[in-house]
Amino acid sequence: MTTFEGALFWGFLVVYGIVMYVLSPRSKNANSFYKGADDQGNPVGQWSLTASIFISWIFAKSVTNAANLGAAYGVTGGLAYASYWLSIPVAGYIIYLIRTQTGARSLQDFLTSRFGRLASLAFAAAILIRLYNEVWSNTAVVGGYFGLPGEWEYYAAAMLFTVFTLAYSLKGGLRSSIFTDVIQAFVFVFFVGAVLFLIVPANDTSVLLSNGEFRLDAGFDLLLVALLQMFSYPFHDPVLTDRGFVNKEKTMLKSFVVAGLLGFVAVFIFSLVGVHARINGIDAMGNAPAAVGQSLGLAALFFMSVVMMTSAGSTLDSTFTSLAKSLAVDLPRLAQRAKDTLPSVRVGAVVMIIFAFAGNLPMFAGTDILKATTISGTMVMGLAPVFLFYGFTKWSPWSFHLSFWTGLGLGVLLAVGLIPDGWAIGDGKYAMLLGVNAYGFLICTGGFFLPLAFRRLAGRSLAAGEV
């Protein structure tokens, strides 16, 4: 960076952090800190909740991945990644059913009532791993606009961004997170529009929107993976699901549907950044937004960095608040060591501080941010039958464990390369991922229903013996 460029980028980072801290409200009680209510106890409004869901799920790594896939496969790659956002309405509808049919106040409450305390503990472990990954995978993207991995600018920017986000998260918890999400959503939309203003006129629109092929070896296999994972992927992300319990059921459902559709459109539109790189022969180098920004000049690169900071900030503050709720509220209740009263704000603050720094350790080791989505989504495929078919059982711990642990095992085997080649569907880059998710969904579903089938058969045998 030149002196002027450094002043522009570092200056915006500092101003961004100060403005977010000044504007974010301070939580005066635990109900506000952990549940997002205002000082009078009123729940989050519908449009604030919609904006929060919309922007908090548009991770910095997500828009980067969408653009990279656009560069690799054209609009097919963009549609593949954007399809993950269709899982938001799916999650909203299932949470709506859970709340109205079971009266559960959280997913942990629901799982405990239907599948037992061990099921809730396994689920809690899965979401904590997910939240831990969210820290480094978003701060690393921001650092990439200030330097390369291994350079001090890269790590300094990522850690400074972490400190700023932590500061306003400590100030207001979930209330602060949702409030700043609204601001970040508007900033994100404005600067994405600015980026498109630079990209669209530089291309033939028909070529830009038609580049790509719907073949298994051209990104369509990843699109099918996303459509399969939409029934499991959202449930291991408390950044999303925590927001399913902060307002009335119908208000929540409307917010989830609108936010999911808006997210799908926004992510697909941003993937056109990668399609532009593909059409114009720009080497994405693993970071299509940065590569395109550099090719279009300083203004475009600055716009890209603003998009990344706002999307990363909205996700990171939500991650901190979800970690605080999971470790300070949900787990103690699960261990039966806490009553229904919320813990003090100080407990959640300590959790945030610990994970703000521990969560960045993988960034210093170096990781692949796309794997944080595709692999983790595969490992939790066993959650799909649990949430889709819970209505078939009132109490069946084995149904959860046979489904969840089977999915986790298949995900681990995929990660270490021990799945047989015959499982692959097609011959594209994601052929094995598609095969494991398709066959795995069927196997996990079979595991979920197996205890129910045994119970019914045993009941019939007992009845026949009595006769």
UniProtKB/TrEMBL annotation:
It catalyses: L-proline(in) + Na(+)(in) = L-proline(out) + Na(+)(out). It is found in: Cell membrane. GO terms for cellular component: plasma membrane. It comes from the Bacteria. It is a multi-pass membrane protein. It comes from Marinobacter salinus. GO terms for molecular function: symporter activity. This is Sodium:solute symporter. Belongs to the sodium:solute symporter (SSF) (TC 2.A.21) family.
